[in-house]
Structure formats: C-alpha cells, structure tokens
Request: fold
Amino acid sequence: MAKRSMNIKNLSERYGLSAKEVIAELEAQGFPGMKPQSMIPDASLDLLLAHFDGLRKKKESAENAGKGPPVPSRGTEVHIKSPIIVKNLAEVLGKKPNEIITNLMMMNVLASINQMIEPAVAVELAARMNVNLVVDKREKEEHAPKAEAKKEPVPEEKGYDDKPGDLVPRIPIVTFMGHVDHGKTSLQDTIRKTHVAAGEAGGITQSIGASVAYSGKKAITFVDTPGHEAFTAMRARGANVTDIVVLVVAADDGFMPQTVEALNHARAAGVPIIVAINKIDLPNANPDKVLLNMQQNELTSEEWGGTCGVVRVSAKTGQGIDALLERILLEAEMLELRANPKRPASAYVLESQLEQGLGPTANIIVKNGTLHLGDPIICGEYYGKVKGLIDYKGQRVKSAGSSMPVKIVGLSGVPDAGAKLAVCTSEKEAKEIAESRGVNKRVETLTGKSGGMSLDDLFSQMETGKKNTLRIVLKADVCGSMEAIVESLKKILSDKISIEVLHAGIGAITENDVLLASSTGALVVGFHVRVNPGVNELAKKENVEIRLYSIIYELLEDIKDAMAGRLEPDKREKELGTAHILKIFLLSKGPKICGCMVDKGIVKVGSKSRVFRKGELIFNGEVRSLRRFQDDVKEVRQGMECGIRLDNFLDFVEGDVIQFYEIELKKATL
Ligand code: GDP
Reply:
C-alpha cells in the first residue's frame, strides 16, 4: 500500500469507530498521548491499518458466527457478578488469565488466578481495556436501582424503626476477664449461688454459656468466663456481646501478664471496665498494689482520682459481691442500654455443639428483640426454625428477650462461636441466605480474606483516606526493650496516620495476639521473640501480618516508612539488553521477521521492547518469538544473531534499534 499521511479522524471514519476508540486502540499499540488531530506516524501506518483491518474482521466474524466467548470489542459493556475471581474476569473480558494478572500488576495489584479482586479494581482494569464492566447488574430489570442497592440487606442489617415507646431498658451483659487463677470462675459461681432470682430453687442445671443473676429485682447476664482469647475471637467475628468487662485481679498477686492482656482486649472492645480486687480474705492481700498496677497501666481508679470503678471482693467469703453487682448496675445505667422487645430477635452465638437427640444446638444471647418458638432463623451459614428454646435453668421456654441467654434447637448445622443470628420472614428466605453465605465462605477460604490487615492493606486504605491509625500489637523479650519501643513509637509523628499500641507484652507471639490484631485490624510486631507453633497458620487465616525484628532501629524505620506511605510496590524497569536490525526477511508464509544482532545483554521471549528509529521511539510492545537458525529459542545473548518477532509490529527497517526490558514489581519491604 502506498504510504500517505493519515490522522486519527481519517482512521475513525475509515473504521466506523469514535476518535476516542481509535486513540485508546493506538495507546494499547504503543502510541500514547495521541490527540484527535494527531497524525499517525507514517512509518507505522501500514502496520496500524493492518491492525485495524484485523480488528474489524474479528468483530465481523464474531458477529456473524456468534460462537465462542467473544472478545469484547472496545467500548462494549460486559457484566460480571461479585465476588470477582481473576479467572472469571479473564473469561468475561475474553483475555488469558496471565494477561489479566499482568495488567493487575501494572496497577500494583498482586493477585493469582483464583484470587478475588475488588470490584473497583476490576472495573478500572476493564476500563483500561476499553471495556465497560458492570458488576452485579440486576437481570430483567429495566429500571435497575443504583449499584448500592444491589443486594437485599440481610436480616440482621435491616434497619428497624423502633417506636419511641417500644424501647425499654436492657439487662447488662457482663464478662469477667483476668489472669488465670485470680478467681473469675469462683466469682461467677458465688454470684450464681447467692444471687439467683427470688423463688428459684436449686442450683443451675444447664450450662448454656451464660447465666442471669439478680441484685434485688434487677438482673445481670454473666457470660461464662471465656478467657480473653475466646472473647476476642468472638469480637474478631463481629460479635460485640459484652456491655461491661469486670477485670478480676487477685489481691495477693496484683497485675500479671494476662491481666494486662485482658485489659487491652477489653480496651480494644471499647467497653467500660470495672476492676474486682478478689481474694481480699487472704492475709497477704494487698489491694493498694493493685491500685498502683492500675495506675501503671493508665487505668486510674476512682479512689485515686480516675474514672475506673474498683470493688474489693472475696469469692470465698462473699464479701463485696453485692457492691460489685451494684457497681455493674450503676455502670449499666450510665450506658443507657435499650432494646425493643417487639422487634424480631437478633442474637450472637456463644457456643455451639451437636447434641445427641437434639441435633445442632447453639447457646446464644439475644441482643435485641424477642426470639420466639417457630421463628425462621439464619445463623452464620446455617438456617432453620426455632424448634426448642432452653433457658439457663434448663427449662423449656416459649420466647427469649433481650440479653437473655438461651439454647436453641432447630438449626441446619453447627454455627461458629460469634456468628450472628437473625429472624427472617420465612424459612425459604433463611435457606437462600444460608446457601449464598456458604458460597461466599468458600470463596473467602479460597482467597484467604479475613478481618486482619497487612501493612500493604493499610497503605491502600490510607490512599483512599479510609484509615488513619496504624494499630500495633507488640511483643518483646524483655520489659526494657518493650518500653523503649513503645516510647519511640509514640514519638513518631505523622499527619497522615497515628500509631496506637493496642497491647504490649513480654514473650512469644501467641494466638491471642493474632486474634486481638484480627479483631482490630492491627499488625503484630515481635522484637527478639518467636512465634508460637501454629500461630503463623492462624495469622494467615485471619489475614494478620506478623513482623519480626531484632534491631529496634530497623523496627522503627520500617514503621516510619509504613506511616509515610512508602509501601507502594516498587515498579522498576529493568533493562535487559539491546539489539539492532541487520536485515528483514520476508517469509512466504507468516509475518516478517527481522534478523538482529544482540549488542548488549539478553533478549527474552515475553520481555518488553521499544523500537527506536534514528533515536525516535516508534513502537513499544512485547517480544513474541525468537529464532536461532531454524529453532525457536527462549532467549538470546549478547554477540549472537537471531530472528525477532514482536507482538503487533511489522514495520521494521534495517538499522532500527530495539531495546528490551522487564517490569519488576518489588513488594515494598518494610
Ligand atoms: P480463674 O482461673 O480466674 O477462673 O480462677 P478460679 O476461680 O478457678 O480460682 C483459682 C483459685 O483461687 C481456686 O483455687 C479458688 O478456690 C481460689 N480463689 C478464688 N477466689 C478466691 C477468694 O476470694 N479467696 C480465696 N482465698 N481463694 C479464692
């Protein structure tokens, strides 16, 4: 074809495309920055015309044949349902998964073929390919509502308009926490025995994860002392059951490592804390030491001018128990806990099990509303109808109101502790939700998505302005370095982000640390400590990042880097080599091949290339194939001759210089 000058407009008329489409296509072919009035470089005109001809043919044949998954033509709209897995995205875009993964890398998103990516990322990637990707569009709906309304809210998320008169005070739900052997269980047992409701006879016959005690006529629900690991594991799943934490500290022992840990877990939950100084019957009881320990942990007692209530008790003699219950009720009053008994129940699972004769049962605590026999329910990924309700006294009841612990019978499976329970409009609806959750859970397992946070996540959140706190769970080998690190961390100032040390402790990194991090979106930092067996696995599951250091300076530098937002994966161009074209071979079949001499470095199949003519860049694309004599080879080194074919570029002339390079994506090192 005789060469003549053409501009974008000419091309768009010739191929029936908009100028925008032509420009996008040219950009994809390595001609960036074109404007509607730009001229097409003469040297590349033939090649580009051939390319556009090819595109037109492809489009026509796809339209005519209508077979196979067509490659979406540019500017078209394609639909996909969430969750978006890389493999599925490749399918709908008509691309190879590798291509999608590479493009994602160019967007600094590292994902494998089976991984889920954010809808916004998929939409942007598709847009780069000039495809309008629509996520979760409703079928058969002409007047589809906006994207936000795409999913029916699940029952527990549905807003419920409480009429002012319907809200009544709710019984407080209390959890005891503290160091092992400081008397949590004994205190709870004593309260159970001494503060049963008037007229109630006998002991407790059923353990259903919680019990109700009375101070006068006022009730308090006590969740069985779960240990803070279980407490935080539940919170990690979004179950904020507890209204008030009672931190139990033995008067003869004072604060111990688990006391501090429990305190930090309670603080992370943002609930009021009451300190119960237990075992004051012992001769060596030293309550003042506990007050001092509180002060040292920034928890000042009321007696010392702070806000934290302190009650001296003895589980053994019963001394101070009444005062403790009164203090709990006072704290509850200030919280103004309210619930509406008329609304459908929402509840959390405390424990669950498979019981002979009953099937799956769950010990739940109703947080709001009233649960009735016969209610259709959804609980985690299971559903059912409430067939039986058993209260903490072991009696069958017809309903359970707010803050009431109760065992339910009738679920289709055994839900996780911390799972939410909600009432649906029908069992059919419950079943449908359960089924879709089952699918999502499998996807989550596949992609490892969970509640924790890595520093990279944090960085991307910072970019979108969502998060401005870097939460840290710190473990160190000795108290001195722990304090030094905490102090130094406090001194790092940044206007983008602040640091919050949720917990600092001595010793190895444990499951507890990971659970706390998972429930709060924190990072676990270890200094001169090991990670306990199995903890790395849990961290992976919970998506929590653990970073280990042995030099304080390095630790601080890394945290500073994280705060300064320097975590973006480095995208570096690595030059591989150069070659120049000696001769062009025209083959009878197939495309032109250029005979080259590799002047420097190495050429690899798949590497990126730039073609320069008289010092001017004329093409940017990939090396499609390499030949040495009659053989296809993967790479050719300096000083050797070879035949090179580039992807979508045929317009070589002798003397052109080709530069080869790779894009290295280096994960930001912290
Ligand atoms: P938990 O691990 O925190 O649940 O502690 P336990 O309730 O199991 O109590 C640990 C030990 O401390 C048991 O031997 C109890 O009998 C004892 N204990 C608990 N409370 C008191 C108390 O008020 N006074 C005395 N003298 N001993 C107590």
